[in-house]
Every structure is written in structure tokens, then in C-alpha cells.
């Protein structure tokens, strides 16, 4: 036996350089693998909060050298009990920037690009650049958006199998108190976020008549002050949950109401919790879930071990329970399926096409922007781009698509009805009628 | 430190001020500060434990930079304990961070009394021999102990505490304590004052389901010789009777009553798990008994006497469709009963304390109150000495794991982790730790694993070649992501042990980093 020469990758090398039996199908152990991960693999971490901070550390110490992190938030005092890359003097600074800086200071050779912006602000090209996307988010909407972006790259071959080079893997984690989940999403193979959206039931809201007429709990009194009384008293002024004066006002109104009805339990802390829908969070759960996500990322990229299939839940409330569930894809999924089929005449203008999408019962899109093969055909925002693309509106879509008879088009817009609208991205299979090579028979299986 | 309350807000919402206070009073000792140990402590320092003491005798090597975030390049060659301690301190200046540059194995041998100063010891990356010795030391000194180990894509976490009693177990889903199957006189009398057939539709749809069910159950009993619905047909009929009392389809209170009708038929009395605690020999208290067992002894008397077979009432009710007035009145009736039950319990606790020669006021009102409120949910966890588990694991369990598909990888890793330590004791290195000779290491490890299975009384059981190969491939590597997972689990359990809230895991947790089918083994 020979003693190994000192190396930073002393431990990781055991996994990346040695052959194994319980490994991924494409595992090719050796120094080249290690170097390729360093040189060529780019990982995007979405979110620089409780999970994001852990993920950046875990990935930087798992052989990845090129990381990007995107987060729109600034650091708050209440982050400091778990977001270990931040200090008291960092409060108010962008999370993504501070997190990237701290990890680069500590782990030699790692390069982390930070993006202090909304995820919707980045063009599709930005996302297509990464080998894998790791999600450390606390909102369903943001997960749904990134999922749609990653799935938008997916293309299917003629046998309806996903084309490997278009598959953008995702690893997603989430926590609440002593509970959490980690999952891997291989678009086209394992269920995407949208296929299993039922795993995240919508938040239950109190009926307004309960708040107004028959309050029974402290939360009812708080929501009365927040949702009803505020608007009555402050006509036109929007309530800002981050403004301490606003919060204090809601609290004192809630106390008054509770006293009036003889309801116990209104506190300032509960008021904040109810109004901001605060999810309790601790360092240890975030550490566990992020570690599982980082490990799966390493395994997916390197093949050095079999992976999770495909959903892990952790619950530490009563004892310790971990469970792996193999969820299945929804073959009809609008997001990771082959795309909604839209048949058009070659004379249809871009403007008409957009109108059509707004009226499409399966899509219900508004404020639609359209891109084709990375080219912006029409953009609603920013104003400069809108102006630049406006003239396209009266041009036939067929011409804008370089007369390609059948192709994928990406549309971006707001989906849903009323106040439940959220930004979303949809992949469409646009087919032009009456062009050679595309027959009705060809289309039969696709819709 | 500015505004600790704000800083800890998100965790105070989980374990409250009392839990936080317990953390802030605790002193934690860490043995070995590789990534598993460093990550465990990181999570505890962030949460605000009182003090941490890092014990490690090694110097920082280049390889440590690749798997530990609590070190940096400029510290290579220096004390690992000192370096890690300094970086941990950065995370929270409210925590006292200390270090001792000494090998844990040496400390265990030479200075066992060292450990008695701590609330809890986190022992990472120890081999079997040291684990067994440390376990005895901590057990004798009444210091809580948790072992954590990361090894390639596997690892384990094991708590070792003689007994851990939990009052505030805070389960996620637990049936509310409404006593609809056994309402007490005041509640019955209140229900009598309310007319279900009230003409006013607004009043009708705001009668809480608790009242509806009590009255309907009474009606049923009158027409069924004093019994409650018991057969499936009875229960369905009872539900239909509720439905028939609705006067409009939008009466949520009646829908809630139908959904909750099972609470009327639920068996009276206490759960089997509580029965087991009450029957435990520790409830025969003496002058050395803990507060917990004194209160269990009082509970036992309460149930047999004024409780009439039931524990003290919890005293809170869930939200339900109701007028404010009826809801608040109902709330007060439940609270009053809970207060009466608490006073009875308090008297019993005092009497018992007096009987065993202790100060009758030595258990605070707040503690008795909390015990009463949580009486249905109390838990007791006990852990075998690690030596007992190692020498005589629970045979039926071990046999079950070895033949059960779901457990095969986890129990395989358990055997191989132990085999790796025997290997190290024989050959002064772990299997596959150094390059070359891999085949020889594999066959040696296999021989040891077969012998170990024999020692454990499992002759004839085998492990797969794949898993033995995999274990050698790991070569005792401590991967950061695995260490962060194992350390995360360890810190989670430490928090539960120190705050005495929630229920710590029982058994040995074996991490399976291949497909995440990790398992808890009860050996």
C-alpha cells in the first residue's frame, strides 16, 4: 500500500476515481472526470436563503468550481439563525452577492457568479447555459417558474423519447420546521414539478364573513385588522408587511378586536406570523435537505452512484422518518410534455397568434411575449425591447419563423384568472397547415 | 448581540422561549472536528447553544480543505481544533467557543472525568473501541451522548442516554381532547341550554359541532338503552341523523359535525402507549425519582380516581364554525375543567412529594400545568449501552433486517461499518483507505464481515459482493455532503434532547447515500 499524495480532493477522489458496482450507467471513473466537473460543469443555485447558503457550501466542497446563484432578496436579521454565510453587519445587503463572496473566500478555486434579481428577469439563454439547476426556494410560484424554464428546453424524438441533450436536470429541496423534502427532476423521465403540483396544497384562507362577523381565534382578529380594517382606515395606501409601523398598527387593531370579543392570544409575534405567513425554519433541517440535494447533484453529474428515485421526505418531529417515493410522470402534463399543439395557417400574423393564445382554454395566457429559437419575436417588457419588436406584430408568424413548417415556440406571460395570476412559461408546438411534409396523419399522435 | 429575539425568531416559533433558554444553558463537547463534527456544531452554534468545546488533536492537512468549510488554506499545518473553533465563533458571538488540542481517544483513556462538565457530548468518527469506553463514561456521569459517523456514502447516528422523558412531544397530528365520547357534567349542562331546532337560520348555522354532537349522542343514547353507536350501521345511521337536522345545504357546522362524528364513538380512556408508561416500574417513585416520574405517579392516581379513567383535560379546542359568543363560552368551559383537573393533579403531586420525603413545592406549577396539558402525549425513550448492542443485538430484529429487502442495504452497511473498525484494529488502516491492493482489502473485509455475522449469531447470512466492494471503494472517505447530512441529523437530535421537546429517534440511524433508503435499526 502506498500513502496518497496530499490533495484537496483526497476524499472525493475515492468516489470519482475508483470503479464501483452500484453506480450510474455512464460512470467513467478517473482523473478526467474530476477535471471535467471542475472545468466544464456549471451549476445554478436558485435562492441564497436557508437552503441556498448550504447548497453553495456543499457544492463548492463537492468538486464543482463554476457556480451561479440568483436571489432577489436582501439579508434580514431573522435570517441569521440559519443562513450561516451572513453576519449582522451584512443586514440589508443582497443575499446572492454576500453568499457568493463568503464561499469564494473560504473555498479556494471556486468561482461563483451572483445575480441579484428576480428569476423572471433572466432570459431563457441564461438558464440554458447550466448543466444542472438546484432549487433552494420557499415558494411554489418560483419553483413552478424555474420548472417551466427547464422543461422548455426539452425536446422529444419521433418515438416520443426525450432527446438526452435537451434534458436539463433539476434538484429541488424544501423545508418547514423539522420537516423537508428533496427530489430530482429529469424532465421527460421523472415527474416535473407541475406533474405533482398536488403535493403542495394551496394555503387555506379564512372566509371573509368569519373575519367580519364571527371571529373566534386570535388569527381571525389579526386578519380582520390586516385585510378589512386597514383598507377602511387607510384608503388607497397599500399595506407593507415590512414596515414596522404598519405591522404595529395591525397588531394594536387586532388586540382591540380580540378584547371586544373576549378572544385570547393576540401577540405581536403571532401577528407577524399570520400576516407574513412565516414558515418556521432552523439550521439543521436546511442542512439535511441541502446536503441530500448536493449529493444528488454530484451523483447525477458524475454517475458515481445510483441516484434517488425520485422523492425523499424527511420528518424529525417524532423520532426520525425518511421515506423515498417514486412518483410517476403525468403524460398529459402541459409543462414537461411535448408541448401544446397549435395549428395555424401560414397567413396568421404574430398579433393574431397572441390573441389566439389569450383565448386558448388550455393556456389562459395574458401579456404574452414570444420567442423562437432564442430570437425575441415580441416582448412585452422592457419598453426598449417592446418598441424593437413591435413591428413584428403585423408580420405573419410563418415568416418570422423562417418558414419552418413545424417547430417549438416559447411564450411567456401571465397565467390564471383574477388575483391568482402568476408569470409562466409555456412550450408550444406550432404547426403550419398545408405545408409539404406535414400531413394530418403525422399530427394524429401528437395532440 | 443585537436583538437576539429577532435573530432567533424563526426557531422561537418552533421551540419557544423555554426551548431557547435550555439551549443557551447547555454546554456541548465535540470530539473530532472533521466535516461531520464541524457541520453538527455549526447548526448548534447558529441556534445559540451556551458553549461548545472542540476536542481534536490533529493538524490541518491539505485534504481537509476539500471537505470542511470551517477551515482555510492559511491554517494548513496548524491545530484543526483551533481553526474550526475560530470559524465557528464567527457564526454567533453569543456562544462561548473553546478548543482543546488533544486526541479524543487519549482523553477517553486518561481523563474520563473531563466529560462530566458537559450537558452533551457529540462524538464523531470514533471507532468501536473508543465508542464503548466513552459510552460507559457518559452513562455513569449522566451526560447525554450522541455518536455520528460519515463513511463514504454511508454513516450512522446513534443516541446514548439512559432515559429521556418528553412532556412536550408536539406531535404533528394529534386528536383534539374534546371528550365527546365522555362529556363531563358542566359540558352536558351547557349543551342542554341550547336548542338545535332553533328557528333563526343564522343561529342554526352557527351552533358549534361540539354541541351538535353532544346533544345528538344523548338523543341516540336515550333511544338505544344508554349505549352509543357501535356497529358500522349504527355509525352510518348516526351520521344520517345529523344530516337530517340540516336546514340549509351551506351549514358548515353540520358538515363539521358529520366529519367529527367518529369522536363520539372513539374508545374512552387512555392509549396503550400511555398505559405502558403508567405501568413502568419507574412510576413506583422514591426519594430519587425525577420530576417526570413523580408526575406520572400522580397521573396514575388521577386516572384511577377523579379522572374516572381519563387524563386531565387538555383545555383547548380547535377552531370550528360557530358564533363568537358560543365559541368563547365553550372555550371557557373547557379551560375551567382543565383548571380543576390541574388543581387535583397538583394536590396529588404535593402529597407524593411529601410521602417520598421531598419538598412538596419542589415541582413548579408551570411544570405540572404543562404535564397536564400534554399528559396524553408524554414519551419515554431509553437507549441500550452501545456495548450491549454490539455484543448482543436484538436477535429477532437483526434476523428480520437481514432478510427484509427494504432493510438489506442499511443492515449491510451496519455490519460493514463495524467490520471496517475491526479491520482497522487488525491492519492499522481502513479497507481501501490507500490506493492499490484493493482486491486484497475486499477479501479481508469480507472475511471479517462473515466472522462478525457469526459472532452476532447470524451464521449463514451473507452480504452482497457489491456492497462489500462499495465499502472498500469508500476507503473511509469523509465526503462533505454526506457529513453535512449526518451532522445535520445529529444536530437535529441534539436540539430535541436539550430542549426536551419533540421526540428523539430511537435506535441506530443508518444513512444510505446510494438511493436514500436510510433506516433506523432497533438493535
Can you characterise this structure?
Chain A has 447 residues and is α/β, with parallel strands linked by helices. In chain A, 34% of the residues lie in helices and 18% in strands. In chain A, strands 3-2-1-4-5-6-7-8 form an 8-stranded mixed beta sheet, sandwiched between helices. Residues 438-447 of chain A have low confidence and may be disordered. Chain B is built from 22 helices and 10 strands. In chain B, the strands form 2 sheets. An 8-stranded mixed beta sheet of chain B has the order 3-2-1-4-5-6-9-10, sandwiched between helices. In chain B, strand 2 (51-55), helix 4 (80-91) and strand 3 form a beta-alpha-beta unit.
Features:
heterodimer, A: 447 residues, alpha/beta, eight-stranded mixed sheet, five-stranded mixed sheet, globular, B: 523 residues, two-stranded antiparallel sheet, 22 helices, 51% helix, 10% strand, elongated, ATP binding (chain A), Ub_act_enz_dom_a_sf (chain A), ThiF/MoeB/HesA (chain A), ligase (chain A), nucleotide-binding (chain A)
Shape of chain B: elongated
Global structural class of chain A: alpha/beta
Assembly state (oligomeric): heterodimer
Structural class of chain B: alpha/beta
Unreliable spans of chain B: none
Strand content of chain B: 5-15%
Separate helix tally of chain B:
22
Give the integer mean of the pLDDT values of chain A. 91
The end-to-end span of chain B amounts to 45 Å
Give the mean pLDDT of chain B: 96
Number of strands of chain B: 10
Residue fraction in strands of chain A: 15-25%
Count of β-strands of chain A: 13
Measured as a percent range, the helix fraction of chain B is: 40-55%
The percent of residues in helical segments of chain A reads: 25-40%
- Major beta sheet of chain B, specifics? 8 strands, mixed
**Side-by-side strand order of the widest sheet of chain A:** 3-2-1-4-5-6-7-8
* Shape summary of chain A: globular
Radius of gyration of chain A: 25 Å
Major sheet of chain A, described briefly?
Answer: 8 strands, mixed
Amino acid at each position: 500500500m502506498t500513502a496518497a499524495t496530499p490533495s484537496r480532493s483526497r476524499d472525493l477522489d475515492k468516489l470519482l476515481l475508483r470503479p464501483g458496482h452500484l453506480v450510474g450507467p455512464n460512470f467513467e471513473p478517473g482523473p478526467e472526470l474530476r477535471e471535467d466537473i471542475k472545468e466544464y460543469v456549471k451549476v445554478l443555485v436558485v435562492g441564497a436563503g436557508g437552503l441556498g447558503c448550504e447548497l453553495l457550501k456543499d457544492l463548492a466542497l463537492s468538486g464543482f468550481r463554476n457556480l451561479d446563484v440568483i436571489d432577489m432578496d436582501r439579508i434580514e436579521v431573522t435570517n441569521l439563525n440559519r443562513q450561516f454565510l451572513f453576519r449582522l453587519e451584512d443586514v440589508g445587503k443582497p443575499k446572492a452577492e454576500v453568499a457568493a463572496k463568503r464561499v469564494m473566500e473560504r473555498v479556494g478555486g471556486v468561482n461563483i457568479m451572483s445575480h441579484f434579481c428576480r428569476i423572471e428577469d433572466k432570459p431563457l439563454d441564461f438558464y440554458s447555459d447550466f448543466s444542472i439547476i438546484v432549487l433552494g426556494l420557499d415558494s411554489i410560484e418560483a419553483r413552478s417558474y424555474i420548472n417551466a424554464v427547464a422543461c422548455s428546453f426539452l425536446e422529444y424524438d419521433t418515438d416520443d423519447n426525450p432527446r438526452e441533450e435537451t434534458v436539463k436536470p433539476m434538484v429541488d429541496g424544501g423545508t418547514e420546521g423539522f420537516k423537508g423534502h428533496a427530489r430530482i427532476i429529469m424532465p421527460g423521465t421523472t415527474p416535473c414539478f407541475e406533474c405533482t403540483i398536488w403535493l403542495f396544497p394551496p394555503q387555506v384562507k379564512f372566509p371573509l364573513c368569519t373575519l367580519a362577523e364571527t371571529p373566534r381565534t386570535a388569527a381571525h382578529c389579526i386578519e380582520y385588522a390586516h385585510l378589512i380594517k386597514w383598507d377602511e382606515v387607510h384608503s388607497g395606501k397599500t399595506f407593507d408587511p415590512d414596515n414596522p409601523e404598519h405591522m404595529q398598527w395591525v397588531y394594536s387593531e387586532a388586540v382591540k378586536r380580540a378584547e371586544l370579543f373576549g378572544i385570547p392570544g393576540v401577540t405581536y409575534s403571532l401577528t407577524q406570523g399570520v400576516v407574513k405567513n412565516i414558515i418556521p425554519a432552523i439550521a439543521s433541517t436546511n442542512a439535511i435537505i441541502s446536503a441530500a440535494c448536493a449529493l444528488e447533484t454530484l451523483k447525477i453529474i458524475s454517475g458515481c452512484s445510483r441516484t434517488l428515485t425520485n422523492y425523499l421526505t424527511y420528518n424529525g418531529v417524532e423520532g426520525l422518518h425518511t421515506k423515498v417515493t417514486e412518483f410517476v410522470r403525468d403524460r398529459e402534463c402541459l409543462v414537461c410534455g411535448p408541448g401544446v399543439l397549435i395549428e395555424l395557417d401560414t397567413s396568421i400574423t404574430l398579433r393574431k397568434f397572441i390573441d389566439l393564445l389569450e383565448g386558448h382554454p388550455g393556456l389562459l395566457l395574458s401579456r404574452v411575449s414570444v420567442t423562437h429559437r432564442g430570437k425575441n419575436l415580441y416582448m412585452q417588457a422592457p419598453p426598449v425591447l417592446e418598441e424593437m419588436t413591435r413591428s413584428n406584430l403585423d408580420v405573419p408568424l410563418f415568416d418570422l419563423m423562417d418558414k419552418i413548417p413545424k417547430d417549438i415556440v416559447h411564450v411567456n406571460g401571465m397565467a390564471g384568472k383574477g388575483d391568482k395570476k402568476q408569470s409562466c412559461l409555456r412550450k408550444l408546438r406550432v404547426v403550419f397547415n398545408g405545408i409539404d411534409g406535414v400531413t394530418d396523419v403525422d399530427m394524429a399522435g401528437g395532440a | 448581540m443585537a436583538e437576539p429575539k429577532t435573530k432567533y425568531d424563526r426557531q422561537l416559533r418552533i421551540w419557544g422561549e423555554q426551548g431557547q433558554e435550555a439551549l443557551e444553558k447547555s454546554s456541548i463537547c465535540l470530539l473530532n472536528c472533521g466535516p461531520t463534527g464541524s457541520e453538527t456544531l455549526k447548526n448548534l452554534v447558529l441556534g445559540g447553544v451556551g458553549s461548545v468545546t472542540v476536542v481534536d488533536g490533529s493538524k490541518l492537512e491539505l485534504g481537509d480543505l476539500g471537505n470542511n468549510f470551517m477551515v482555510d488554506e492559511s491554517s494548513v499545518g496548524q491545530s484543526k481544533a483551533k481553526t474550526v473553533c475560530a470559524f465557528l465563533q464567527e457564526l454567533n458571538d453569543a456562544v462561548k467557543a473553546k478548543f482543546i488540542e488533544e486526541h479524543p481517544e487519549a482523553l477517553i483513556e486518561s481523563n474520563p472525568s473531563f466529560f462530566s462538565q458537559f450537558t452533551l457530548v457529540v462524538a464523531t468518527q470514533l471507532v468501536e473501541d473508543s465508542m464503548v469506553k466513552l459510552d460507559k463514561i457518559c452513562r455513569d456521569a449522566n451526560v447525554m451522548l450522541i455518536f455520528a459517523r460519515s463513511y463514504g456514502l454511508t454513516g450512522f447516528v446513534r443516541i446514548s442516554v439512559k432515559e429521556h422523558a418528553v412532556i412536550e412531544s408536539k406531535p404533528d397530528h394529534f386528536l383534539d381532547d374534546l371528550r365527546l365520547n365522555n362529556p363531563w357534567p358542566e359540558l352536558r349542562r351547557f349543551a342542554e341550554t341550547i336548542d338545535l331546532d332553533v328557528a333563526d337560520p343564522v343561529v342554526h348555522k352557527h351552533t358549534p359541532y361540539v354541541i351538535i354532537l353532544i346533544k345528538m349522542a344523548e338523543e341516540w343514547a336515550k333511544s338505544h338503552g344508554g349505549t352509543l353507536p357501535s356497529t358500522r350501521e349504527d355509525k352510518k345511521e348516526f351520521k344520517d341523523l345529523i344530516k337530517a337536522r340540516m336546514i340549509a345545504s351551506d351549514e358548515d357546522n353540520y358538515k363539521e359535525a358529520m366529519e367529527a362524528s367518529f369522536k363520539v364513538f372513539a374508545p374512552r380512556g387512555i392509549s396503550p402507549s400511555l398505559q405502558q408508561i403508567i405501568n413502568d416500574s419507574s412510576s413506583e417513585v422514591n426519594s430519587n425519582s425525577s420530576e417526570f416520574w413523580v408526575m406520572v405517579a400522580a397521573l396514575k392516581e388521577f386516572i384511577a380516581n377523579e379522572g374516572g379513567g381519563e387524563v386531565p383535560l387538555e383545555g383547548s379546542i380547535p377552531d370550528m364554525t360557530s358564533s363568537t359568543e358560543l365559541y368563547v363560552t365553550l372555550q371557557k368551559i373547557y379551560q375551567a375543567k382543565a383548571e380543576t383537573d390541574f388543581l387535583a393533579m397538583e394536590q396529588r403531586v404535593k402529597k407524593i412529594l411529601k410521602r417520598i420525603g421531598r419538598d412538596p413545592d419542589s415541582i413548579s406549577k408551570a411544570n405540572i400545568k404543562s404535564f397536564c396539558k400534554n399528559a396524553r402525549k408524554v414519551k419515554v425513550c431509553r437507549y441500550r449501552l452501545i456495548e450491549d448492542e454490539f455484543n448482543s443485538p436484538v436477535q429477532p430484529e437483526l434476523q428480520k433486517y437481514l432478510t427484509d429487502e427494504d432493510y438489506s442495504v442499511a443492515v449491510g452497511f451496519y455490519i460493514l461499518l463495524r467490520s471496517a473498525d475491526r479491520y482497522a484494529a487488525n491492519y492499522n488502516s481502513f479497507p481501501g483507505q490507500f490506493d492499490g491492493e484493493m482486491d486484497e482489502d475486499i477479501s479481508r473485509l469480507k472475511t471479517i464481515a462473515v466472522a462478525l455475522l457469526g459472532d452476532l449469531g447470524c451464521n449463514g447470512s451473507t452480504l452482497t459482493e457489491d456492497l462489500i466492494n462499495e465499502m472498500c471503494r469508500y476507503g473511509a472517505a469523509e465526503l462533505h455532503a454526506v457529513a453535512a447530512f449526518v451532522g445535520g441529523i445529529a444536530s437535529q437530535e441534539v436540539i430535541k434532547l436539550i430542549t426536551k421537546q419533540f421526540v428523539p429517534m430511537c435506535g441506530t440511524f443508518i444513512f444510505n447515500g446510494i438511493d436514500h433508503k436510510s433506516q433506523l435499526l432497533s438493535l
